[in-house]
Amino acid sequence: MKSAFDTSALTARAEVAIDVARKVGREAARFRREGNPGALHVENKGLQDFVTVADRQAEQAIREGLLARFPDDTFMGEESGGKSGSAGTWVVDPIDGTTNYIRGFRHWGVSIAFVVGGKVEIGVVYDAANDQVFSAIRGRGALKEGQPIHAAPTTDPANAIVVLGHSRKTSFDDYAALSKRLYERGMDYRRMGAAAVDLVRVAEGVSDLFYERHLNAWDMLAGALIAAEAGAKVAIPPVAMLLEDGGPVIAHSPGLAEEFAFLVEFEGLAL
């Protein structure tokens, strides 16, 4: 289905989202670097699920930056909530990887997706560790700092690096069993704790798989589009379902499709 937004409308939104993500990400990094730990005002939303004043300030800044330019769009954020609308909807995680951010582990980012009619049209991710912005408009390829990027050409699993996520909403035994299976196939694996950044690592060819059994929409939509536009094979449930309940995401190098077919089958998804 063709987007209700023409090329110029999507391009304008992508440019603004890139600028907003970079400014907000840099400000969050500065706030973390220069403030004392107490200034973060960490609150616990659940077991290993935190929010800080930086998350709330970042989300407000993103909301204002986007809606000031595009006031008819709707907004859905991790911290402030919101619903998708019949027009385009911005789906935002202001700090993806909040636990990492709190502890000073630089693997975190800002995730901004634009959804229209059940499709992700724009994805923007600010990668704090490298002070870089990844972006994509559906059908037009993936970029890092404006330069094209591509998924890795890996075909041998013994040369693969994979990144796994784990949600406490899912079985740890399944996660451990999967880690063992991948290890026995010769792969090296990591768990980094920031899905949006993990997905762009697949997009730029640094890793060959990112898989997590349950994520919220704001964690994955931007990174999933960027990975797909970079040539990775990406499987997610329908976007409308993700906006309501979250779900799994699988993104991997195209040359390892046969190797990871069992994951796609296990989750009942389609590439």
Q: What does it look like?
A:
It contains eight helices and 14 strands. It is of the alpha+beta class. It has two domains: 142 residues, Fructose-1,6-Bisphosphatase, Chain A, domain 1 (2-Layer Sandwich); 111 residues, D-Maltodextrin-Binding Protein, domain 2, CATH 3.40.190.80. The strands form three sheets. The chain has a seven-stranded mixed sheet, sandwiched between helices. Strands 11-10-12-14-13 form a five-stranded mixed sheet, with helices on both faces. The chain has a two-stranded antiparallel ribbon with strand order 1-2. The chain is globular and about 50 Å long.
Provide the number of structural domains: 2
Return the CATH topology of the largest domain: Fructose-1,6-Bisphosphatase, Chain A, domain 1
Amino- and carboxy-terminal Cα gap: 18 Å
Largest sheet: 7 strands, mixed
**Helix/sheet category:** alpha+beta
Radius of gyration: 17 Å
Considering the protein shown, what is the CATH homologous superfamily of the largest domain? Fructose-1,6-Bisphosphatase, subunit A, domain 1
The number of helices is 8
Binned strand content: 25-35%
Q: Strand tally, please? A: 14
Mean pLDDT: 89
From the coordinates shown, what is the CATH architecture of the largest domain? Answer: 2-Layer Sandwich
What is the CATH level 1 assignment of the largest domain?
Alpha Beta
